[in-house]
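Researcher: We're teaching a course module on how sequence relates to structure. For the next exercise, students receive a sequence and then see the predicted structure as tokens, so they can try to spot secondary structure elements on their own. Here is the exercise chain.
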Amino acid sequence: MLPKTIQSKTHHIHSPFQFIQTLENCQKGQQLKGLQHLKKYLQEFGYLKYNVDHHSEVFNDLLESAIKTYQCSYGLNVTGILDSDTVNQMMKPRCGVPDYVNNGGTKPRHGHDDKSPFHSVAHYQFIPGTPRWSKSTLTYTFNSTAQVPNSLNIKSVFQSAFQKWAGVTRFSFKEVPKNSPADIVIGFHRLDHGDGNPFDGFEGVLAHAFPPSYGKCHFDGDEMWSRNPGPNELDLESVAMHELGHILGLGHEPTKPEAIMFPTFDYRRIKRDLNIDDIQGFQSIDTGVN
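Model: And here is the predicted structure for the students to work with:
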């Protein structure tokens, strides 16, 4: 049995989202094996009501509506059919935080009971009530259950990411020793790690984080994290920048692929600089312009 550590991948492993490819071109009225998994996917990421008809393999009106909402959210052609562009977008590795479209259809996640936990203004999203950190100096620490290679130098990576957010916000960030009380706890974990949002292995969901003031920030230990990513490797700082956005209260920006808060990630790509939408989104949240 392999030790509980971040392993190098010597061959390609099928993505947990691979099943979506087998459903390409399906549409309302069809009955297909695998549609229940598609419904679960759309529920997990905020597009379909919780526990709605998940065991049915029928492509019904609710599923068509959810796909249309997904297509609209990502700026795709709104057909209600699982066309190739929609399949390609859905299969991309992504953040585990739901997109929280404003249809009132998502299961409450991350400790919030709102039916629609994120409200949208312009391209960015935020939580109703705009929960904010009540202080401007936030402490952070590291606590992982998956071993992280020393060569990754995660303290340096996160220090750089924190500095970039500090440069456009009112916050400063200070590391404290492991197991000390901290506002933000960063960790690498595998599969079920105790927060109700288990990881799914290589590819699929890569990381997730919680909004103010429950500052947990988790990364999938089954991924190949890097500071200089090659094929099948993820740039840790790029993903860290995204997850820290959630920690500060930002949701996703599905129509802005260049934004840090875009929900999906590409292996090997480096995207470490905040986009104007990221900055305006946080400033709107922080000043209560909603």
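Model: If you want an answer key for the exercise: The chain has two domains: 15-91, 137-287. The helical segments are 35-44, 61-73, 84-90, 154-166, 236-247, 276-287.
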